Amino acid sequence: MSVTTSVEPLLAIRDLSVGLRSRSGVTPLVRGVSLDIRPGERVGLVGESGSGKSLTLLAAMGLLAGSPVEVTGGSVRLGGTELVGAPDRVLRGFRGSQIAMIYQDPMTSLDPVQRVGAQIAEGLRAHGASRRGAQERTLAVLAEVQLPDPARLARAYPHELSGGMRQRVMIAAALAGNPRLLLADEPTTALDVTIQRQILALVARLQQARHLAVLWVTHDLGVAAQFVQRLAVMYAGRIVEVGPTAAVFASPQHPYTAALLRAVPSTSGERTALGQIPGSPPDPARLPPGCSFVPRCPQALPGCSLTDPVLEARSGEVAAACLVPVSEWRP
Amino acid sequence: MTVEDAGARPLAGRAGAGPGRGRAIALRIAARLAKAVITLVGVAVVVFIVLRLLPGNQITSSLGVNAGLLTKAQYADLEHYYGIGKPLTQQFGQWAGDLLHGNMGLSEQSGRSVASLIGAALPVTLELAIAAMLIGLVIGVGAGAVAAAAPGRLPDRGARLVALAGLGVPSFVIGSGLVALLASVFHYFPSSEGFASLRSDPWLNIQQIFWPALTLGLGIGAAILRTTRGAMLDVARRDYVRAARGRGLAPRLVIIKHVLRNALIPILTMSGIQFGYLLGGTVVVEEIFVLPGLGRLLLMSVTESDYAVAQGVTLVFALGFIVVNLLTDLLYAVVDPRLRS
Amino acid sequence: MAGLAQAGEALTAPLVEAARPGLARRLWRQPSGRAGLIILAVMVLAGLASLAGLAPDAPDAQNPSVTLHGPSAAHLFGTDQFGRDVLSRVMAGTVLSLQTALLAVAICAVVGTLGGVAAGYFGGAVSWAVTSLADLIFAVPSVLLALAIVSGLGPGWQNTAIAVGISYTPIFIRVVRGPVLTLRQADYVKAARVLGFSRSRILFRHVLPGVSGILAVQVTLALGWAVLIEASLDFLGLGPPPPAATLGLMVSEGTNIAGIAWWSLAFPAVAVVLLVLGFTLTGDGLRDALDPGTSDS
Quick check: A156 and B238 CB within 8 A? Predict the structure, then answer.
């Protein structure tokens, strides 16, 4: 599979499955996802809501423990260590210092009754920093995300800050421990459009400066286009296409990707009608047989409902999970 | 990249740090106090009217059946003395005026001043209330936290069962049962001797206060247990708790620093509500355990139509309730920084 | 008058609709709801049996020859110091408690809901007046209010009910006002106003149905609370005087002779507890059934 590469991956997700445990059984939400992230690489994970992309991130961090959603199979290796099923003690050691996460809603991701500086510092102290060391490091990282007057800002409460500032604080908290990998769960979705750009630019700058690997989850292809080097497209808990961003955009190999791209308004070229994908994503408890995209797929053939296609290499470094080659697509 | 680019606005609340902020806080406290005073006055009026509207008056209550033997002149004299014929507003004004001078009137039954009666009874009820609240908080927060730590497991089920008992069993049942149990099975009668104040005989005093406080505390603890458990479970699901774990914090630290801290807000609310019920509960419990407190005083004064005492005690109760409300409001601001600016 | 009928219909219609098998089944599935309903069923049946004259003895019937006998085949719950059958008295006491609670809750539910809706919907001065009044009543300890009313109007279950009802009204006002305030901002209510619907129509057809679920829960919980307060008042001697068979009085008298006749204390006490628990559990179950998000099963 073209997901594995020659350079040793920093994060290797293999066949990861996540499900919702309920009285009636287990509903699969992530089904056999495999993805590699190399050191310093920017990878994007794109899909509609409910495709399982956020859960993939949470599963990697081991943050699903204690909820009815749990990892039902597969492996996630960070460096050489297996994270799935590892004891909390081990996972704690990695969180913040090797792998960190930023979330979609900065308002709810910060404790409203504690000062923001304290929230950053507590993570550092959990990894053994001294009080003073944690304080200095906090101020340094607040300055790094370009927040004004870090000393004063560290003493602020989350509700006293604007949305953009809160997001910067969250980024600072994530990077304070100098992790090698940053998981970003739609960090710009809840923000103003202008702020989105700023945050994106900030993360790009920080990524370059720190040689950080980033896994950026979003439902916005435009954001993905600007930032990531490799793009994975998720649908109904599966990765349906993956490859270098430019290649995927230029020549999508999966009808879903093609449909997503058509839906992105383009300022260049002819004015075509804004493409819409008819229908909505399937209910994870009631997946259609075979390929789950069949009900909405303009290229579906009868054989598509018989087998669920696996990711296969196509042209270049792109892999797609579709039985119908592009050459046979109807317009 | 400038401050403007960062989408900043001057840090709200911090910009006015200093004299401006102090003034805002002072204003809020003043507003609360004003509201408290108005409520107190309102309660006084309500109590005054209600007691005056009831059939029977001071004459019949102090003389009983013999009131019928009075001549018209004697009756008129007594009416004048009690100020019965005068318009209500005038009576109220007189009473309020006396009150502000510290004169709450005289008790019909005992002839002592209402103020002295209340003064003697207040420490007892105060001790009882504080003890009950402490017991309730310890049981409620302690058991609630334990239950929330392992939802669905044995300690949780046990705690919730106990909470159900505490909520469903009225305090007069618990109290009566306790007295019956202690007396008939253990032959233990701490109340048989007169009430011992904390200063005169601390050990006896503690014994005499403990059982009624436990009775009340079980009911309070049950309510606080449910609130604590619910609040902690709710907070544990929040995004910021997950984010804290994502930074590598140990679970125990997360629970103490983030979960419990945020759960304090609803716990504080419930504690305030429970205190309200507590005041009413003292009436029953002091009666059962024979404690010479305000509750028992109130009960006796109303059944004996001793209006002056009843009014006085009611005002004290209302004052206590209002003071606790004020304290709770202030504590909110301490616990939740969002309420400060 | 038409308005009242409309209000009644608006309040009950969604309840009736929700009372489809869906809600009842969900309530039954909740362990708390199930337990509560079973307990209530037992108590209500016992009460009805007493009303229908099916109790083993008349509650007042004294039998001097069998005083202070323990539970036996003839007297399942034993006899008290006057030879009265405790079981019959407990059944009669249950009836009294239930009817007092029903009257009390009827009072506070109607007054409280009207007040809460008015405060929430009209806001401004109306809201201020209503909430201030509610706070005032709340600040007066309920026991005192009850004491005053009962000692003034005289003992009797109706007066106890009035006292209890008035004390609980502020809670209804508070509980109803919040959701009404929120509903007022709801899109469909705003749309109705823009479309020019009359205020009363909006209130009855749009706002009231929205709070009917909360009301149902609160009414059930209020019934439990009413039984508790009513029993406490009876216990203190402020309810119907002896020889009335109130559960509170029985507990009070029973405590004195508990050493030699535990059954005179135990059975009335258990009856009170069952009544209160029955309503509280059912209320909890209703709350969980109507809003699964807050259930903890």
Answer: no
